[in-house]
Design goal:
This protein has eleven helices and 13 strands. It is of the alpha/beta class. Strand 2, helix 2 and strand 3 form a beta-alpha-beta unit.
Length: 328
């Protein structure tokens, strides 16, 4: 706890999402005054289940509604913005791209334009991009100097949002920094189609975990508490000219295949006998992607606190409590 956030007025978009919920929790612990943009009230969200919703100011509305965003910034005199709100599922984007483009692209330029108009109040903006913004690259790991070349709908939405954020920084001098994380996992993720929550739930039920790909796709897996701390660190350093207008990768730099991840979860849960159901049906996903976090280590003096085993242990414990399953 640094004391940096005491009494600071902060807006978090996507506050009911997994990362948003944990970020709000951290900001409240540091005595920030938090305003949460909420599209749908979800009682299962960690923001609601933890009771944190009663400690924040809620603005109901969508990123696509410019007037709502402008009112939130102006009426609540927001100093720091964490823009985490997005349609975050690759499969949803593949089936119906329009909603993803509206939320992720329009939502981003709406928010940044509202920040530009109220820059006398807004001092810092952190935009959540993604490793997906890079698209498929011949060179791995991804470094921040690579071009952004998303091709499938979700990737394109993140590429566009990332470039728009860079545009507002370069053209208007808006105090923006961009976070590109690997695959974030942890308690509070209720999108069961994702590999970590889906696998844990299946194993708790005594069922075979489902792998939608062929199991050989390679990814970074990044614990949600490290992700929340990375966003805070980025905002805290935004007055540094080496940070303003820049993008930073955040990762444990320990890529693995989907099958290796599932096996790690099985080992921790003592469920190795439940062989994965490998379906090979994934569409619109990049085969191999993982990040170098060297720039974040060097410029931000940041490093992850959780390795995969520690993060998975906490995650499994969260889902056991959430799903009401006792230890075996």
């Amino acid at each position: 706890m640094t004391g940096h956030w005491t009494d600071r007025r902060v807006l978090v978009t996507g506050a009911t999402g997994m990362v948003g919920s944990w970020l709000v929790k951290d900001l409240l612990a540091e005595d920030a005054s938090v305003v949460a943009l909420v599209l749908d009230a979800d009682p299962q969200s960690e923001l609601y289940r933890s009771g944190d919703i009663r400690r924040v100011t809620v603005v109901d509305g969508a990123l696509e509604d410019f007037a709502t965003l402008e009112r939130a910034l102006n009426a609540h005199e927001i100093e720091t913005v964490f823009h985490l709100g997005a349609q975050a599922l690759v499969g949803v984007a593949h089936r119906s791209p329009l909603g993803t483009f509206e939320a992720n692209i329009r939502g981003t330029y709406n928010l940044l334009e509202a920040c530009r108009r109220h820059r006398d109040v807004v001092r810092r903006v952190v935009v959540a991009s993604s490793d997906k913004a890079y698209g498929a690259q011949a060179r791995l790991p991804y470094v921040e100097t690579l071009p952004l070349e998303g091709r499938h709908p979700y990737e394109v939405s993140k590429t566009c949002a990332d470039l728009i954020a860079q545009s507002y920084a370069q053209t208007y001098g808006l105090p923006v920094a961009i976070a590109r994380c690997g695959n974030v996992y942890g308690g509070g993720d209720l999108n069961w189609s994702r590999i970590v929550p889906g696998t844990v739930r299946s194993l708790l039920r005594g069922e075979r975990p489902v792998i939608r790909s062929d199991g050989r796709y390679v990814r970074d897996y990044f614990y949600v508490k490290d992700a929340a701390r990375a966003y805070r660190r980025l905002a805290e350093q935004l007055d540094d000219p080496r940070v303003r207008g820049e993008a930073f990768n955040f990762s444990t730099e320990s890529p693995m295949t989907v099958l290796e991840l599932v096996q790690a979860i099985q080992k921790l849960m003592d469920r190795a006998h439940l062989a994965p159901d490998v379906r090979g049906t994934a569409e619109g996903e990049i085969r191999s992607q993982y990040l170098s976090a060297a720039k974040a280590r060097e410029v931000l003096a940041w490093e992850p606190r959780y390795d995969l085993e520690a993060g998975l242990r906490e995650t499994i414990a969260w889902y056991r409590a959430f799903l009401g399953r006792a230890e075996p």
